[in-house]
Amino acid sequence: MVVYYRPDTLAEALALRAKADLTVLSGGTDVYPAKAARAGWGDMAHTDVLDISAVAGLKGIVEQAACWRLGALTTWTDLIEADLPPLFAGYQRAAREIGGVQIQNCGTLVGNICTASPAGDGAPNLLALEAEVELASLGGTRRVEMADFIDGYRHTACRSDEIVTAIRIPKRARRARGHFRKLGARKYLVISIAIVAAVIETDAAGTIAACRLAVGACSAVPLRLTALEAALTGVPLATAGARVTDQHLSALSPIDDIRASAAYRRAAALALTRDLLADLADAQPGRAA
Predict the structure, then answer these.
(1) Which fold is adopted by the domain 4-41+60-170?
(2) Which H, E and C letters describe the chain, residue by residue?
C-alpha cells in the first residue's frame, strides 16, 4: 500500500523527505502517467508519495533585485499569464505549447525539469536564461546552475533529502529577448522531436552583444550550443541565421526512435535554429514584419 503525505509547511516536507524514499509530487502530470505506463508492462513497484502542493510559500513569480524567483508550485498557466519582459518570451511560448489547458493549469515549471526528460520543453529555455535551481534540505539551501542540474538521462543533481523550491532567473543589463521553436508530429499534445530555445541580447544597432542557444530532444540532456554562441557574438542579428552550419551542432547526439531518426533530428535542429534567429531578426524594433 502506498503511503501518501501532504504536509502544509516546508519544514515538515523536508523532515519527511530526509527520513524516507519518497516520490515528490505537485501537479502530477508526469508522475501518474509514468506509473500507469509501468503498470501496463507489469511493473507494480512504487514508492510512497510526498505531495507538496499544499506547502505555503512555494507558488508564484516574484521580481527581486537581481532576479525573478519562480516558486516550485508555479504552473505553466501562471507563467503564461505573468507580466514579464521580452527576456521570458521564449519560455512563455513554450508554456503555451505544452499539453492542453488542463496540463498547463496543473503542471509545474519545476516538475518539468525534475522529470529530466530529454524532450522536456522547459529545460532548454532555462539553459538559455542561465537559470539557477534552488534546492532545500534540513541542512540548508543551495543553488545549482541549470547547466548542472540535469546531469543524465532522467536524472538530476537533486539529492534524496532535497526538494527543489524555486527557479531563479537573473536580470540582464542589456535588452534581451527570448524565443522558442519546437518540432513535433503536431503542434500541441505531442512529445517534441527537436527543440531550440534562445536568449539574444543586442545593441542599439541590432548587433548581437551576447547570445545563449540551447537544444533539447537531440541528446541525453539538453545542451547549450556554445560554439554557435561564440560565432554569433558581434554579428548583426539580421544575418545571424544564415551563418548557422552543421558544425555548430556537432555536440548533439540524437538517437533513432519511433518519433524520428537521428539524422532527421539533427536536420530539424539546424532548421529550427535558423528559423528562430530569423524570427528574432524580424521582431527587432523598426524592422518591417
Answers:
(1) 3.30.465
(2) CCCEECCCCHHHHHHHHHHCCEEEECCCCCHHHHHHHHHHCCCCCCCEEEECCCCCCCCCEEECCCEEEEECCCEHHHHHHCCCCHHHHHHHHHHHCCCCHHHHHHCEHHHHHHCCCCCCCHHHHHHHCCCEEEEEECCEEEEEEHHHHEEECCEECCCCCCEEEEEEEECCCCCEEEEEEEECCCCCCCCCCEEEEEEEEECCCCEEEEEEEEEECCCCCCEECHHHHHHHCCCEHHHHHHHCCHHHHCCCCCCCCCCCCHHHHHHHHHHHHHHHHHHHHHCCCCCCC
* pLDDT tens digits, one per residue of 181-234: 999 877 666 789 999 999 999 999 999 999 999 999 999 999 999 999 999 999
As annotated, the residues of the chain forming the CATH 3.30.390.50 domain(s) are: 176-282
Q: What is the dihedral of CA 80, 148, 134, 84, to 10 degrees?
A: -30
Fold of 176-282: Enolase-like; domain 1 (3.30.390)
pLDDT of residue 289: 36
Mean per-residue pLDDT of the chain: 93
What band does 288 get if pLDDT is binned at 50, 70 and 90? very low
Domain with CATH 3.30.465.10 in the chain: 4-41+60-170
